[in-house]
Design brief:
Elements: H1 2-11, E1 14-18, H2 25-35, E2 40-44, H3 47-65, E3 75-77, H4 87-92, E4 94-95, E5 101-102, H5 107-125, H6 140-143, H7 166-175, E6 179-183, H8 184-192, E7 203-206, H9 212-219, E8 222-225, H10 226-237, H11 244-261, E9 265-266, H12 272-291, H13 302-323, E10 328-334, E11 342-348, H14 352-360, E12 364-369, H15 379-385, E13 415-419, H16 426-429, E14 430-434, H17 448-461, E15 465-468, H18 472-485, E16 490-493, H19 499-508, E17 512-516, H20 518-523, E18 533-536, H21 547-558, H22 563-580, E19 591-595, H23 599-602, H24 606-611, E20 617-619, H25 622-636
Parallel strand pairs: 1-12, 1-13, 2-6, 2-7, 3-6, 7-12, 14-19, 14-20, 15-17, 15-18, 16-17, 18-19
Antiparallel strand pairs: 4-5, 8-11, 9-10, 10-11
Helix pairs in contact: 1-2, 2-3, 8-9, 10-11, 10-13, 11-12, 12-13, 17-18, 17-25, 21-22
């Protein structure tokens, strides 16, 4: 893998690398990155991988190469501005709803804010990073009291604390480093949205690449609610002398009325009253922006800057939604009243086009993950990131690359794909059990047959079970059943405590079950006897009412493709592969992946899904599986 990555850097061809758990893929791209003659950016999806790179892999690599002549071992971590404490906000105060700077909130929240402020000042004194990940325990709401978004920031030259700023110092370190570690979202903002966030680079490694399209979609999703517009109007009232801020507040009322008349879910055709309300908000926000007093030289005021930023955000989101672009999907999302009530959301219908035009044409990109071959092939993932299957060339190039699907003016983007395998012998270490005898899952959650099956399997394994469920309700129902019928085991459900605490309990006591939803499907690494059974209640297709997925599926059908296979089955295959990957994490692990959904072996699409999984020995016989689990449990002790 290291040789192929280095070759890709040198010849400028894009590369997809499937590298199974345990192959050491991070070192396989970090070594060529250190040896490359220009800066390399590594983008990850999760904080856990960033921590692994920065706290484990890179220090070991630097120690190994520090005496090599002509090799730069410098590296830096770069995140979005809101991930760093803001010294201006900490020292000058936070704007309230009227834009007045308030020192500290009252009550217990005020005490926690003071703790965060003290931590940030200590970081500033000791040349710390001021990163959120290193801060004392806090909520999102608390963190907003000590941080700002990029739009709210005064800017280095206009801020009294610009030279001390944690975010600016992180950018300075990145500009002096050979290697920049960042995340998918920041990469998207820099490369696709064209907002310069990362120092100049020509090569990108996208790790956890199976996540990249979802993360880029997330970064390009905008939200707008009545509360957002009202808040922006209230903050603007202190700075705008005319009626423009009041007009914006009136527009919020029109939006509230139009939202109340609309239905939850995807909006294919914007109703006239909602379209009118969005235009009203857009125009009122534009007028309000024009009414803000101009800032003079050295006349920086955080309250004014942040009030204006709020109005600018409302304008941008309303303008995008009112445009009703075919390239966007609009929907109404219903939140609890305490969390703000209904909101409008807009997201790109697809991201492969922007990725191809804005990232792949300008940079050399290496995509890597343990899960890149879906249905046994790279084509699905390649297409999702903007590379055409017809542009793939053999690992050893032969002849000229020809893409017959490209027009005369369209640039061909050749790429290679390699699977470097796995150190694990899945055929001997793992069993895939499909409960063919069970009824297909219904809409009413887990039935008696599924609950009986879960209890029997968990009993045979004597705990040691990670349950991956399609909904929080299903996870909690299963947990209640196992607790009632197997009281000698410890059964934990997601939500009982914070995920790190649940994971710690799961590891410490082998006679434990941990049941949860999506964050457990991809974020848990538990090698050893702790986890010998991974339960999956149903094939994880997206919900039929998911606005974005359903729109993408319909668009694929309309373009002559198979929307179900291209969108729903691909989504399910990716999650199934990730979920199954929780079982075998080392060469000594053994266990069972149990799928309680018979469609994996009875439906036509089952072959595609199975081809996306590790090559485990497969059975549909429950007696065989229970005996295997009992043997594993007795040998584990």
């Amino acid at each position: 893998m290291a040789e192929e990555v280095a070759r890709s850097f040198d010849d400028g061809l894009h590369l997809l690398v499937q590298a199974g758990t345990g192959t050491g893929k991070s070192l396989a791209y970090l070594v060529p990155s250190m040896l490359h003659h220009k800066r390399v950016v590594v983008a990850t999806a999760t904080l856990a991988l960033q921590h692994q790179l920065v706290e484990r892999d890179l220090p070991r690599l630097v120690e190994a190469i520090e005496h090599e002549q002509g090799v730069s071992s410098s590296y830096a971590v770069l995140k979005g501005r809101s991930n760093y404490a803001c010294l201006h906000r900490i020292r000058e105060g936070v704007p309230d709803d009227q834009g007045v700077l308030v020192d500290v909130p009252e009550g217990s929240m005020g005490k926690q804010v003071l703790e965060l402020r003290a931590w940030a000042e200590e970081q500033a004194e000791n040349d710390g990073t001021g990163e959120r990940d290193h801060a004392p325990r806090h909520t999102d709401r608390l963190w907003r009291q000590v941080s700002v978004s990029a739009r709210e920031c005064l800017g280095r030259s206009r801020c009294a604390f610009g030279d001390e700023c944690f975010a600016e110092r992180a950018r300075d370190r990145a500009a002096e480093s050979q290697l920049v570690i960042t995340n998918h979202s920041l990469l998207a903002i820099d490369a696709i949205e064209g907002v310069p966030m990362i120092p100049e680079y020509d090569v990108v490694v996208v790790d956890e690449a199976h996540e990249v399209t979802a993360r880029i979609t997330q970064a390009a999703t905008d939200e707008l609610s009545t509360g957002d517009v009202e808040r922006a109007a209230r903050r603007a009232q202190r700075w705008v002398e005319g009626s423009e801020a009041d007009d914006l507040d009136d527009a919020a009322g029109a939006l509230e009325g139009a939202l109340a008349q609309s239905e939850p879910g995807r909006i294919d055709r914007i109703p006239a009253d909602l379209a009118d309300a969005l235009v009203l908000v857009r125009d009122a926000a534009r007028a309000c922006l024009g009414a803000f007093p101009k800032e003079g030289e050295g006349d920086a005021d955080a309250g004014r800057s942040q009030a204006r930023a709020g109005v600018q955000e409302v304008f941008n989101h309303a303008e995008r939604m009112a445009a009703d672009l075919e390239s966007d999907v609009l929907w109404r999302n219903d939140r609890e009243p305490a969390r703000g009530g209904p909101q409008l959301c807009v997201a790109p219908l697809q991201v492969w086009g922007p990725m191809r035009d804005k990232l792949l044409r300008d940079k050399t990109v290496v995509f890597t993950s343990a899960t890149l071959m879906l249905g046994g092939d790279f084509s699905v993932v390649a297409s999702s990131v903007g590379l055409k299957p017809s542009e793939r060339i053999p690992t050893e190039p032969v002849g000229e690359v020809v893409d017959e699907s490209s027009g005369p003016d369209e640039e061909v983007l050749p790429w290679r794909g390699i699977d470097v395998g796995s150190p694990f012998d899945y055929g001997k270490q793992a069993i895939l059990y499909v409960a063919r005898h069970l009824p297909s899952p219904g809409r009413n959650g887990l039935g008696k047959a599924q609950l009986d099956e879960i209890v029997e399997l968990v009993d045979a394994a004597e705990g040691r079970t990670l349950g991956l469920f399609s909904s929080r309700r299903a996870a909690e129902t299963a947990a209640e059943e196992v607790r009632a019928r197997l009281p000698h085991l410890t059964t934990l459900a997601q939500g009982d405590a914070q995920l790190p605490e649940l994971a710690r309990q799961f590891v410490e006591d082998p006679h434990t079950c941990l049941f949860g939803t999506l964050s457990l499907w991809q974020g848990l690494d538990v090698p050893g006897d702790t986890c010998q059974l991974v339960l999956i209640d149903r094939i994880p297709f997206p919900r039929p009412d998911d606005p974005l997925m359903s729109a993408r599926q319909r668009a694929a059908d309309q373009s002559g493709g198979n929307g179900f296979m291209q969108v729903a089955a691909t989504h399910a295959a990716l999650l199934l592969a990730q979920g199954s990957g929780r079982l075998i994490r080392s060469t000594t692990d053994k266990g069972v992946v149990a799928v309680l959904d018979p469609r994996l072996v009875t439906a036509r699409y089952g072959g595609f899904l199975k081809a996306s999984l590790p090559p485990m020995w497969t059975t549909t016989d429950p007696a065989v599986v229970r005996k295997a689990l009992a043997r594993l449990a007795s040998s584990a002790g």
